[in-house]
Every structure is written in structure tokens, then in C-alpha cells.
Amino acid sequence: MRAFGFLSFGHYANVRGSRTRTAADMLHQTIDLAQAADEIGVNGAYVRVHHFAKQAAAPIPLLTAMAAKTQRIEVGTGVIDMRYENPLYLAEEAATLDLISSRRIALGISRGSPETALRGYEAFGYTGSEDPRGADIARDKFELFLQAIDGEKVVEGDPQMVGPGQRLAIEPIAPGLRDRIWWGAGSRESAEQVGRQGLNLMSSTLLTEATGQPFHELQREQIERFRAAYKAAGHTGTPRVSVSRSVFPIVSEEDEMYFGMRSRENNDQVGVIDGMRSTFGKTYADTPDRLVEQLLADEAVMAADTLMLTIPNQLGVEYNAHVMESFAKHVAPALGWKPNWEGPVQGDAI
Which of 67, 202, 247, 343 could join 284 in a cystine, given CB atoms 3.0 to 4.6 angstroms apart? Predict the structure, then answer.
């Protein structure tokens, strides 16, 4: 691990105890938290994307505002649900954001997690999927998205406007944008596909597999298979790898109240999500010295270059900034962390 960032699900609700009661609260607080994290030296600020729910839904305007208000921190998603996206419009937006942010983006994209709406992407106009989960249209649209950001000519030009036999690429084009695109993989096999495509790997707090292995071992194997597939496909870059964890250093009475004994005693869990038996990672909450010991033993955290800390965003900007500052001060240095003022995060040469 060389870098860490926060991952916000963007929850908001007008309920007791919430400091994020409206969508406006959530959006402004996410921007404020990105600014606070940038000053601490945190490397990344990432948002989840969900639809038909009281959570963050339209990432590009939010990320653009975050990029405009910060100087060094990487801004990104974990992840954009490709089933709901127009691939060419997303390519234009991604290139625009990349140029505005001076290449400080990390766009995680995938088929998406289960949504509250039943085949909600069809309400967005994306029909024709033969897969009950929509994976087929997500993959097809993602391939077109990659072609577009690479500058391939994807449409025929109007002969009266551009002359006969001309094809056109999207504009703008952001050079090297593919190097800042990630695919969110939920299994070892899907991670291999990411490697073959030469993209970055974004792995979450669950895998749609249950082999009996501890979660961190299963995820470390996923990372190894990704890197092996990347190399076998002939790619020669330095791909990035991120994993997500819930980590809370307990350094105050407030931390103890929120994440004390109950979190200390939790373990990996196995359950069913989206019809598949899955393994879920545990929450880490303990004193800093114990967290260092536990995270050094987490094989996936140490195999990745970036750790995304999932945050309880409804507890507000001040508390979440405190969590990140505690992690940066008391835990991250022992794991190999380099703050954002030391330069952009680099992947591992393969």
C-alpha cells in the first residue's frame, strides 16, 4: 500500500442522527471533504454511483467540482454502473473531466452492483439485454467507451460538412485517458479480463465467490491473477490496483462510541448478493497499533497500491476528516503510505 483515499456512498436521509439530510447536503459535504482530505495529504476522493436511491447518482458534475476545489488529490468513482450510461457521452464527459483536473482522475466503471430498481437501466432507454443482470449491455457499451476515449473514429461524417468518406472521433480527446480508467471486478475471473484489457483493477469489500478462504487471501489471489493476465497479454505499463476496507482508528471517546467493541469483534461474512454466494470483508476498528498489525497481515491491502476507506458520510465532514487524519497520522505511515504532495500514485511494473 502506497496510497489511500476515501470512498463515499453518498447516503442522505432526513433521519435522527444524520448530518447529511438532503441531496444538497451530501453534494456540498463531499466537496468539502475532498478539500479537507487534500490538505491532509490523502491521495484520493472517490464516490459510489447508484440510481433510484438517496445516494450519489450523477458523478461527473460532482467530481468536476471536487477537482476544481482541490490541488493534488485524485478524484474518481467506485463505480459507475455502465448499464445506465451512454458510452459516447460518458467518453466526452470523462475526457473533459480529465483535462479540467490535469489528469487527476480514477474512473472506476463496471456492470454495477444490485440496484433498488428492477432493470432500472431500461427506464434510461437501454433495452435489449439478454442477461437478467444486464452484464451483456454493460460490456458492449464499455468496449465502445474505450474505443471513443482512445480517439478511434466511431461515426460516419456528414459528407456535406466534412467531405466524403470521413469518419469522426469524439471531442475532446484526453491523451492517455485509458491509463486512468479502472474496471470494478467482483471475481477472480473478471479480474483476469481486466488484465487482458490493460486497465486498472478496482476491487471492493466483497467478492462474488465463497471458497472458504479468508477474504483477504481470496482478494490477493484476484490481484495476482489480474497481474498475470496483464503480463500475458503483452501489456508493459504499471497498472494500478485498489481495494476497499472500512477502517476506523479508535483514538477518542467518540470513535469508541461509534466503532468500538462491536466492530472489534466482527469477521468476514459469507452471504448471497445478486443471486451469488459472496464473501464480504470485515470492518477494522481498533487502536492504531492494533490496526497496523492487522492491516500488515491483510494480504490484499499490502498487494494493492491504493486503499479506499469506506466512510460513514452521514456523520458529517468534521468527523470523517478526523477519521482520515487519524489514519494518516497513526496508521498509514507504517503501511508504506506516501502523502499526495510527494506526487501522483504509481502502479507496479509488471
Answer: 247
Model confidence pLDDT, tens digit, residues 282-291 = 789 999 999 9
Residues 6+ apart with CB under 8 A from 320: 6, 33, 311, 312, 313
DSSP string, 233-259: TT--S---EEEEEEEEE--SHHHHHHH
Report the alpha-carbon distance of residue 195 to residue 347 in Å, rounded: 13
CATH of the domain at 213: 3.20.20.30
When pLDDT is averaged across residues 316-335 and rounded to a whole number, the result is: 98
- The predicted model gives 110-124 an average pLDDT of 91
* Count of structural domains, the chain: 1
Residue 161 counted as domain residue: no
Domain that holds residue 92: 3-155+170-342
**Total number of residues shown for the chain:** 350
Q: What long-range pairs does 325-330 form, CB within 8 A, spacing at least 24?
A: 325/40, 326/249, 326/251, 326/255, 326/288, 327/4, 327/247, 327/249, 328/4, 328/40, 328/41, 328/42, 330/249, 330/251, 330/288, 330/291
Residue with cell 460490456: 139
The pairing of beta strand 74-81 with beta strand 167-168:
unpaired
Residue 146 lies in a domain: yes
Residue 296, C-beta contacts closer than 8 angstroms, at least 6 positions apart? 302, 334, 335
- Give the range with max mean pLDDT: 218-222, 274-278, 304-308: 304-308
Query: For the whole model, what pTM was predicted?
Result: 0.93
**Lookup result for grid cell 454502473:** 81
Q: In one letter, which amino acid is 195?
A: G
DSSP 3: E
**pLDDT per residue as tens digits for the range 187-216:** 888 899 999 999 999 987 666 565 678 888
- Give a yes or no: residue 26 inside a domain: yes
Q: Is 25 inside any structural domain?
A: yes
